[in-house]
Amino acid sequence: MELPLLHLALVGTPNSGKTSLFNALTGSRQKVANYPGVTVERKEGFFVTPLGRQVSVVDLPGTYSLRGRSPDEEITRDFVLGKATGETVPDLVLCVADSTNLRLTIRLLLELKRTGRPMILVLNMFDIASRRGITVDVERLAKELGVPVVTSIAVRRGGTADLLALTDEISAKLAAEPQENSWRALSVSELRATQREADRIIADCVSLPASPDTWTARIDAVVLHPVAGLIVLALILFVMFQAVFAWAKPLMELLQSGFDVLGEFVHATLPDGLLQSFLQNGVIAGVGSVIVFLPQIIIIFLFILLLEDFGYMARAAFLMDRIMGGAGLHGRAFIPLLSSFACAIPGIMATRVIDNKRDRLTTILIAPLMTCSARIPVYTLIISAFIPARDVWGFINLQGLVMFGLYAAGITSALVVSFLIKFFMLRDFAPAPFMLELPDYKMPRLKSIAIGIYTRAKMFLVRAGTTIFSMMVLIWFLASFPQPPAGSTEPAIDFSLAAMIGMALAPLLAPVGFNWQIAVALIPGMAAREVAVAALGTVYAIEGGKEAAEQIGQVLATKWSLATALSMLAWYIFAPQCASTLAVIRRETGSWGWMGVTFTYMLVLAYAASLVTYNVAVALAAG
Amino acid sequence: MTDTTDTRSHMPLGLAQRGYTGVIQHLAAKQAGSALSDVELESRLIELGFVEGARVEILHEGLVGGDPIAVRVDSITIAVRRREAMAIIVA
Q1: Which end of chain A has fewer beta carbons closer than 10 Å to its terminal beta carbon, N or C?
Q2: Are the beta carbons of B46 and A437 separated by less than 8 Å?
Q3: What residues does the Ferrous iron transporter FeoA-like domain cover (chain B) (predicted)?
């Protein structure tokens, strides 16, 4: 007879090696989603025990207690207590401990015991503990705690054999009737008493060597040095950005040309008409414009996961905390914001490392202000067409200076917005004090990294892809319908809904110096910023589209005033011109509201910046 | 937890310099001026292992104002801002 699915839950403190144990147990049989209504990642995996029992295991967010002081920790508490909506009460809780550091986990376990759930204490990373001379009297520990204890080495093949055997043994005799739950939130004195009890048990069962991990101390002497540490951080970031721009570029170009070839093939194979246009411009170009970001996303996550597994991320947060704190940002916001220079999408996805809701939201809201790589084609086009390539003060290239100014404007405005959010919008959220464990350094494991990248890439393609794809189809529809009358010589887009919207918007955009052609180009530009370049080519009826960027520049230089060009640059610093980013914000915040807030505030900023730029430029006779 | 009878120089960990070693005497969340409530701050400190009798050592300091600090608490290292460390009374 087939036994029902056995439900396991992994509970442990942050840095307990919970996730590597989860990966060791389930391999790539994982499902990553969000818990309903919150932005907490829900990771479930599946495996089969040696005796053939089908098991589902959920990797719960790391926590130091069941108090539930953040949405993540509330999930862990409710899940264990069987109160989480739509979740099965776990049949067995695996409390995962870092064997080199038992204090905090033993206290958590004593608290967990009160929930009455059947439980196993898993002493993970037991090999590292043994190597450091830490010895644990496992039998005595189990007796003192009243809970079965098993050792494991998640990162080694067969390192979870004992755990699997014990799971089989326990699941065979799990009591049918539920046990009494006597858990309630601990008072400060109970908490203290529990920690004392934990310390007593550890003193009885564990012998610690005199000296701590010398490698961690040696590395930290450099990495956490106030000056040397910041230099190391800057070097790591430099390599990371080189990688994101340089390594990803050939792959992105390959993907892009692949989609171009595919589009051409469809164009050549199918007869002219709606189906051809839909497949080539809607489906292939739309999906392609998303998938070309995949190499950048994989490289950024490769670095983030490597640094996280190594134990460096907490150090980077330590180094940057005070420096970013002035703008109301948490130290952990640093990496996501830097990633946003490549593309806001992986940047926003990377905000998952920030555990406080308020800090995470602030970071998500300002990430799109970082100048992403998709703005570069637009900036380059306008700068090369309007800004003379001469030197100022003898050695600075004026075009380069303008480019730098655009980046600086993005960063400055992000810091100002963060500061304003802190003071006006998110006051009700409890600010997160910076209290963070700096774990011992560990060698990152290839398997864990590979699984991490795989699940994130899959999530990006499937979840964001569906939303982005539907927006692309919508934009294609707007730009293609209604069809031009037979025999017309004007560009087809002039007859479309996009043109009608563009013309309708033109009076609104006139004060910032935009003509109706720009207004029309801004609509397909919603798909991805750089698409606006091709769209401008289309509305000005230039043959050749993207390849003719230089030609577009020449045409623009004759059709636009300098004031309009500058206004367009100012617009692009702020404008929420990216459907994909908005879709990711919607998904990561779990709310249309925050997506709306982002869209609105960026649009207002863009309009204001363009208005000021245009009028100042006109006043200075650049009109 | 107020054992003011001890005559050795008690001080908040938040005022200690890099290299300081000592033992936690008691927690005084009220003195910290943290944005957290007293109960919340005390709970979190205990959860990170800051309990009476624990040995502490300041291993590292940040660049700006020596803040935050990296504190060795028995067998683990915790990063904490000096403001919150004011609640940890050591000697």
Answers
A1: N
A2: no
A3: 11-91
Please measure the distance between the N-terminal and C-terminal CA atoms of chain B and give it in whole angstroms: 15
pLDDT greater than 50 at residue A358: yes
Over the stretch A90-110, which tens digit does the pLDDT of each residue have?
999 999 999 888 989 999 999
Instruction: Mention every residue, 6+ apart, whose C-beta is less than 8 A from residue A538.
Output: A491, A493, A521, A545
* Domain encompassing residue B47: 20-90
On whether any CB of chain B is under 8 Å from the CB of A210, the answer is: no
CB neighbour list of residue A381: distance below 8 Å, 6 or more residues apart: A533, A549, A552, A553, A556
Number of domains in chain B: 1
Three-state DSSP state, A281: helix
| Edge-to-edge strand list for the sheet holding A6-12 | A30-34, A41-48, A54-59, A6-12, A92-98, A119-124, A149-151
Specify the CATH number for the domain of residue B33.
Answer: 2.30.30.90
pLDDT tens per residue across span B10-44: 999 999 999 999 999 999 988 877 777 888 889 98
pLDDT digits (tens, 9 = 90+) for A234-271: 888 778 767 766 777 788 888 888 888 888 888 888 88
Nearest residue to A413 via CA among A358, A367, A373, A372: A367
pLDDT of amino acid A314? 86
CB–CB of A469/A286 below 8 Å? yes
Instruction: Find the mean pLDDT for residues A605-612.
Output: 94
> Among A135, A50, A56, A58, which residue's Cα sits nearest to residue A96?
A58
Q: Is residue B65 included in any domain, yes or no?
A: yes
Residue B74 lies in a domain: yes
Shortest distance, CA A196 to any CA of chain B (angstroms): 8
Q: What are phi and psi of B69, to 5 degrees?
A: -120, 150
State the complex-level ipTM. Answer: 0.89
Q: In angstroms, what separates the C-alpha of A148 from chain B's closest C-alpha?
A: 23
Label residue B72 left, alpha or beta by phi (over 0 means left) and psi (-120 to 50 means alpha): beta
* Chain B environment of A439 (Cβ under 8 Å): 77
- Residue B4 has a pLDDT of 47
Residue B54 is assigned to a structural domain of this protein: yes
| Placement of tokens 């459907």 in the chain | A579
* Six-digit token string for A175: 């009591």
Is B13 inside a domain boundary? no
Residue type, position B86, single letter? M
User: Edge to edge, what strands does the sheet with B55-61 contain?
Assistant: A435-437, B76-80, B69-73, B55-61, B21-27, B88-90, B11-12
